[in-house]
Amino acid sequence: MYPAYLEENIHIVEDTRVRRLIENRPPLDESDKKALLRKYHPDNIKSSMRKLKVGVNQGDSAPVELADLLEGNSRIDPKKFDPSSPNYNVDVLVIGCGGAGASAALLAHEAGARVLVTTKLRLGDANTVGAQAGTQAADRPEDSPAIHYLDTMGGGHFENIPDLVEVLVKDAPDAIRWLEKLGVNWDKAPDGSMHELSGGGTSRRRLHSARDYTGLEEMRVLRDEIRNKKINYLEYTAAVELILDDKGQIAGAILLNMETEELIVARARAVILATGGSGRLHIQDFPTTNHYGATADGLVLAYRAGAGLIFIDSMQYHPTGAVYPLQILGQLVTEKVRTLGAQLVNSRGEQFIMPLEPRDVVTSAIIRECRERQRCMKTPNGDSGVWLDSPMIDVIRGPGTIARELPAMVRQFRRFNIDITREPILVYPTLHYQNGGIKIDTEGATNVPGLFAAGECSGGVHGRNRLIGNSTLELFVFGRRAGLAAARYAKEVKRGSPTLEHVRRWQEELQQAGIRDQRPVSPRLLPDYTRRTGGYTSAVFQP
Amino acid sequence: MAEQARLIDIYIMGKYYQVPEGLTILTALEYSGYRAIRGCGCRAGFCGACATIYNFRNDPQLRYDLACQKTVEPDMCLVQIPYFPAVKAVYDLEKIPADGDNVKALYPDIVKCYGCNTCTKTCPQELEVMWWMTDALRGDIKAVADKSFDCLMCGLCAARCPQGLTPYYVALLCRRLNGRYLTPPAAHVAGRVAEIASGKYDAEITALKTAGEQELRRRYNERDIEPALEQSRE
Ligand SMILES: Cc1cc2nc3c(=O)[nH]c(=O)nc-3n(C[C@H](O)[C@H](O)[C@H](O)COP(=O)(O)OP(=O)(O)OC[C@H]3O[C@@H](n4cnc5c(N)ncnc54)[C@H](O)[C@@H]3O)c2cc1C
Ligand code: SF4
Ligand code: SF4
Ligand code: FES
Q: For ligand 3, atom 7, which residue shows the shortest CA distance?
């Protein structure tokens, strides 16, 4: 239920529906878009960025929250730790088990490698399960991989790495078919043809969905398959450092049992990082849609081991995060709501942006509406938001559409007595996705021999802005490629002896740059949300 | 602001705390100084990691929900239940045709379901768990797949089933059988895969890759956009 003053404003939104039904907002042209982004997009707030002082990307900008961790101190003292007596000895170690990790593990296993999967939370508890809207692939007659290529490049502001985009769009239909064969229940017509929707920045209808539980459905199936194939996995076990050998090749990783704090050495011929995103760093204090463990660990580990990063100053703020009620602040209102026809409306009932512009553009427009024009609503908690007019969907597509297409969304709001089939949703941008990450080639390989990366922790394919549905697609395209390539690499590599020399050198570098004492330990592993009550703290009591 | 909200009394694993009204069970735990390692994943009602049990000081009836979704109420007594392993059948999907007998062969215990409906009452997603168990017994795989679609695999139904059944794994098997065998494969997807393999789009994509940025921008801005709204679904 909304408080009375918001209910009153909703009447204004209702009164403008007839007008908006026939109104056709044109997309913005290039220069308008540019100006809007320059002035309002959070990435362009200079004070929130700083340049890295050490490592491969020295001199590049990163959000301060991320920069601190990238330049962090290792949790391992290389003088006191011997990486040469392993608890596990495998061909391929997969770190993280969302969609990318699971796909990689399955393909590496299929290629005959001995695989170990380690993951910080429960198997499959990852950003992947949160994906609601769908997965892109150009497979309808009206569509083609070339159009998908163009859409993706445009969405990423033409900075994407072309070779990666080519692979993404060409492997896409096969990724969908792979999942179909594994038993994913895609939304289909009775003849088997896919029911596909369009999304922001896509010029064709190409989103494959499974109601609004797409990521959950994909993940359930992949997780089940990992168990069917009897692939070994460790849960609640985070990687805290990579191990190299004396030839500078990857040799495994040091893992932490999150509950007992016991350290585990996993020796591996190849390692695949699939640790996902960084939303839980709450860059610029934004709320986030990301899962509990999204703290950029993969980037930290890779960077310290000498892998290059790309576009790390580019984050994606999803235009529509919930701002009311407080309990779901920052949680995703899936883009599918706009895809189905819901419009973004300010406090005067005006549509201020074409709802299917790329995300960064819509985000900037909402921030302008709230910060500069003050045509927004304030919640009792003091947050600003604009309306996402969801009931419009049933007006346009017929009663029952919302209930059928958006059961997760309807359920989520019903828990707080809001009926999105009858009332609009109050939204504001929320930190959603890390556009950049570890630099990879088309096989998922990094510049460190034997180190591969896939999924949200990798960067390059989306340029500076990811389109809806290209991320889950990326998991299956590059996850599978990395799995295969890692298995192949593991067969051929001549191993050296494991060392933590790179960690020793890293700590020295921090010392020389004079920042060692100013930086936290990293990776972060989990955000700290526990409230510290008054009185003595750990400064007095050491457990 | 949260600090100004009315404080309510709750009990966490027997200890008394006061927390602001409006918090979810998960944030109330954190507000009280507890840090979740297990029992937390998406924080958004999608992963099922935060299954929780509670009752009230004066009402011993146990209730179930997701800790990240349910808001605290006065006099709630909270515990979180760790996710525990349940029996999952191991199978090769390629070798089991979608036939109700296969479901029964892999999960023979489902015949023991005596229809007590505890699973349904437990499910935080409000799914008709008992009904799909009946469908599974009858061999109606499609019905199970449909009714169980919103299952988060939180494990609460299995935790509470007096017969030790695992409805969520039965449902997962049926959904996979449904996706693999009972819905026709998408011919246009397979067709496109073959076209791509034959190199049909190579020249066009190479042209885009080698076009200068200006040309690419022009083509992007001039590309025709298919209408988002398509009325007919089926
Ligand atoms: C709410 C939401 C909705 C979305 N909707 C869509 C959508 O509709 N379409 C789309 O294409 N994309 C969508 N996305 C984006 C997409 O879901 C993610 O980018 C993608 O799932 C990331 O997958 P991943 O496998 O790379 O990482 P994740 O799925 O996040 O998995 C990372 C895994 O690594 C583990 N991990 C992290 N650190 C460590 C460590 N140190 N050691 C061991 N394990 C570790 C984590 O616990 C987790 O299991 C959405 C994202 C969110 C959050
Ligand atoms: S069916 Fe069982 S596992 Fe699935 S959501 Fe309901 S209680 Fe949880
Ligand atoms: S709780 Fe168990 S026995 Fe009771 S109806 Fe559900 S599955 Fe059957
Ligand atoms: S934490 Fe994922 S459902 Fe609650």
A: B113
- Rounded Cα distance between A428 and A40, Å, is 13
Arithmetic mean of pLDDT, A345-369: 94
For residue B137, give Cα distances in angstroms to A522, B40, B111: 51, 33, 7
**Peptide bond connecting A523 to the previous residue in cis, omega within 30 degrees of 0:** yes
**In terms of Cα–Cα distance, which of A73, A100, A120, A127 is closest to A523?**
A73
Across A169-236, where does the E strand assignment appear?
A: 196-197, 207-208, 232-234
pTM: 0.95
- Per the DSSP assignment, residues forming a β-bridge with A438 are A309, A458
Count of residues in chain B = 234
Centre of ligand 1 from the C-alpha of residue A278, in Å: 9
Q: Quick one: pLDDT at residue A540? A: 57
pLDDT at A336: 87
Distance CA A187, CA A212 (A): 10
Backbone angles phi, psi at B52, to 5 degrees: -140, 150
pLDDT at B85 over 90: no
User: Rounded to an integer, what distance in angstroms lies between the CA atom of residue A259 and that of residue A252?
Assistant: 21
Identify whether the C-beta of residue A214 lies closer than 8 Å to the C-beta of residue A251: no
Q: Is residue A70 a contact partner of residue A305, using CB atoms and an 8 Å limit?
A: no
- The single residue of A318, A481, A502, A524 carrying the catalytic annotation is A318
Alpha carbons A445 and A410: distance in angstroms, whole number: 41
In this complex, do A185 and B149 lie within 8 Å of one another by their Cβ atoms?
A: yes
To the nearest 10°, report the CA torsion of A418, A420, A426, A429: 120
A338 is catalytic: yes
Identify residue B7 by its one-letter amino acid code. Answer: L
pLDDT digits (tens, 9 = 90+) for A449-498: 999 999 999 999 999 999 999 999 999 999 999 999 999 999 999 999 99
Is pLDDT of A209 > 90? yes
For atom 3 of ligand 4, the residue with the nearest CA is B45
Do B178 and A220 make contact, defined as CB atoms within 8 angstroms?
Answer: no
Span B160-197, pLDDT tens digits: 999 999 999 999 999 999 999 999 999 999 999 999 99
Residue range A428-446: average pLDDT?
97
pLDDT at A155 over 70: yes
- pLDDT on residue B1: 41
Ligand in nearest proximity to the CA of A272: 1
B30: distance to nearest CA of chain A, Å? 4
Residue of A nearest to B213 (CA): A158
CA torsion A20-A22-A23-A25 (nearest 10°) is 110
